[in-house]
């Protein structure tokens, strides 16, 4: 009897950590919730607040509101999202400034007891100690700089601490994943010389280079050009889900080798191959109905029509799950290492997220699932925010090393 027990114990010890079932206690989950600095590197609730939504009131259609953030979230990178349409007539900078203002005015200034303006890793740590949420900003869409390094520097001065080089649209200096197959778009084979100047100036300023949304060649050019670690603020693993917004294993390994992090996106199409495959044809068939709903002038009628379409869609395509999130995190860790994975939820920017993780107050469920998978408390703290803090500090240090002399060229026309 004793021999069998010893043998069983030896077999258990020989199993990989992730294969051992750990029964997490509530005390463990609570301790990690309290101690970890949960940093979300991409949240689009700003597209609502800029239109008048008060983040302190219930967000009935989305994932982000103050009640569900408090006590769980340590730092938020609010998206300064500039749609491609603002490039028409050079309105991108105007929109970027409006989005920056909604973070600084409608979120931080309107709720000073709960949010604090932050621009550095130390600011985030300080906010956590004060039991406040650190509010940071990341520009989504490099066309927001209107091909000017002067505007890039202005955005940094206003508090922006990362920029996604493209959105779904290729701009004048960087190729996007979103229109890679469009023959009508003039592509650059990655970054142009000016695009590389943008990356170098971001290094000099201390602004993180974000490659979510970029074409694969743009990723490789940015990785080669940057002298500081870079990030994927809201992406995933292409080996798990073939959506090309996700990163290949080769990309994840290379990103990690230079000290960067891939932040896992909670959008269902990023998480689940089953969802991605089932959603694509349905999205195509419902596109005309959605466009018709978007043209409705009455806000209440528009909201009702969109909600009806969303309910119909969800009834036909079940959402991704908590297990899908764990699978994405686990794959990224196996490929890039536990020091190079984080979280960028894309809350309020995607149409579908797992119901078990549809806001920050649900994160204890993810904590419990990761503990059960075999991750330690220290591993989880790294994934939740520690890794991103390390990257921020490395970017800040590189800026100090490079000094304060701006790049000579400030406009793409001078290249």
From TrEMBL:
Signal peptide: 1-19
Membrane-spanning ranges: none
Gene3D superfamilies: Metal-dependent hydrolases
Keywords of this entry: Signal
Signal found in the keyword field: yes
Pfam families: Peptidase_M19
Any one biological process term the GO annotation gives: proteolysis
Gene Ontology molecular function terms on file: metallodipeptidase activity
Name of the protein in its database record: Membrane dipeptidase
Organism, scientific name: Edaphobacter modestus
